[in-house]
Design brief:
The protein folds into four domains: 4-95, Helix Hairpins (Orthogonal Bundle); 119-160 and 195-252, Urease metallochaperone UreE, N-terminal domain (HSP40/DNAj peptide-binding domain); 258-338, Sandwich (HSP40/DNAj peptide-binding domain); 346-381. 27% of the residues lie in helices and 25% in strands. It contains nine helices and 15 strands. It has helices at 4-8, 16-30, 39-55, 58-67, 84-95, 127-132, 273-278, 345-357, 364-381; strands at 119-125, 134-145, 161-162, 171-176, 179-184, 193-194, 207-218, 227-230, 246-252, 258-261, 264-272, 280-285, 298-303, 312-315, 331-338. Strand 10 and strand 11 form a beta hairpin. The relative contact order is 0.09. It is found in: Cytoplasm. A zinc finger (CR-type) spans 133-211.
Length: 384
């Protein structure tokens, strides 16, 4: 006979939490209902239950640790197998919160009012809306309590009757192998009631599908992937139960000018070659809205003399607002030095004259790069 600790895949001396976790995993894997009644799975499932019924009981476990299987013979352990009552208690304890629809215990489902389902709505907004906040109207299809029958599902003037199969309990019990299984009543679907004369509008369901219009407030500073919960705006509950919640998942549409980096906004601005060389001022775009906005959707930035492509200029306080504080990010402007195109003959002549006047001091990076390139070529070719 196999060692109980080996069956459950746990070491001797493991705590109760580790024991229960291993049992839950193995029992779910080898449950007969999940394996099409396979005989090997049923035998393995019975073996797992027998091991757990011993090791989960402190008295039985102590006897097993000291004397092995001989120490638990006659104690509903090895030799006789786990009893019907023991197995049912084990599943109540371990799986009551997971398989309440199959086993009795903590997970028992009432045939009374049930809470409605939560709903998800994917909402795409613009970066401008995320920046300043907005009120957005959405249309959500959801289950509504049928007004004709007030949610009973029965035609007005009639009432649902008690289900004869489960006696109004919503559950039926059957014996399978060495333990009993409790399931939702297949005739009434677990409601405990039967609608013999269904409502014409909801066809006995007690609910109808309708589209509802809701106003959603988008807070300033919301980021891509954020979730907004609207309590009580989900599906209506069955049999007069409370409504579920509506979860709105936010996605921010890519912007043609800006990228977001945390609270900062990044923007690339082309700079004429002359301005980059001599320095000067340029207009850069910014988002309009928010308490720090001066009413203009542009800011003036100073381009330093000799600015190169990739140089950044930071404008304080013109980035995204924070959801949780009064902090605000910056607008980070990356400069892109633009080479002039479609030059006239005179412009080309002036540029050639300018190039002839420039030396290493005007192009230090070019001079440094050429020096490194010459050393590389010398090493490769072996020339001095």
């Amino acid at each position: 006979m196999r060692d109980y600790y080996e069956i459950l895949g746990v070491p001797r001396g493991c705590d109760e939490a580790a024991l229960k976790a291993s049992f839950r995993k193995l029992a779910m894997e080898h449950h007969p209902d999940r394996n099409g009644g396979c005989e090997d799975a049923s035998a393995r499932f019975k073996e797992i239950n027998e091991a757990y019924s011993v090791l989960s009981d402190p008295q039985k476990r102590a006897a097993y640790d000291r004397f092995g299987h001989a120490g638990v013979n006659g104690m509903n352990g090895a030799g006789g197998g786990a009893g019907m009552h023991d197995v049912h208690d084990i599943f109540n304890e371990v799986f009551g919160d997971v398989f309440g629809d199959m086993f009795g215990g903590r997970g028992r489902r009432s045939s009374g009012p049930a809470r409605g389902q939560d709903l998800r709505y994917d909402l795409e907004i613009t970066l401008e809306q995320a920046y300043a906040g907005a009120e957005v109207e959405i249309t959500v299809p959801s289950a509504m309590t049928c007004e004709t029958c007030s949610g009973s599902g029965a035609r007005p003037g009639t009432s649902p009757t008690t289900c004869g199969s489960c006696g109004g309990q919503g559950r039926v019990r059957a014996t399978q192998g060495f333990f009993s299984i409790e399931r939702s009543c297949p005739r009434c679907g677990g409601t405990g009631r039967l609608v013999l004369d269904p409502c014409d509008d909801c066809h006995g369901m007690g609910q109808v599908r309708r589209e509802r219009r809701l106003q959603v407030r988008i807070p300033a500073g919301v980021d891509d992937g954020a979730r907004i919960r609207l309590a009580g705006e989900g599906d209506a509950g069955a049999r007069g139960g409370p409504r579920g919640d509506l979860y709105i998942f936010i996605s921010v549409r890519p912007h043609e000018l800006f990228e977001r980096d945390g609270l900062d906004l990044l923007c690339t601005v082309p700079v004429p070659m002359a301005v980059a060389a001599l320095g000067g001022e340029l207009e850069a775009p910014c988002l309009l809205g928010g308490e720090n906005c001066d009413g203009e959707c542009k800011v003036i930035i100073k381009v330093p003399e000799g600015a190169q492509t990739g140089r950044t200029v930071r404008v304080k306080g013109r980035g995204m607002p924070s959801l949780r504080s009064r902090e605000r990010g910056d607008l980070v402007v990356e400069l892109f030095v633009e080479t002039p195109t479609r030059l006239t003959s005179r412009q080309k002549e002036l540029l050639r004259e300018f190039a002839g006047l420039c030396g290493d001091q005007q192009h230090p990076k070019s001079a440094g790069f050429l020096g490194k390139a010459k050393r590389f070529w010398s090493e490769v070719t072996g020339t001095a």
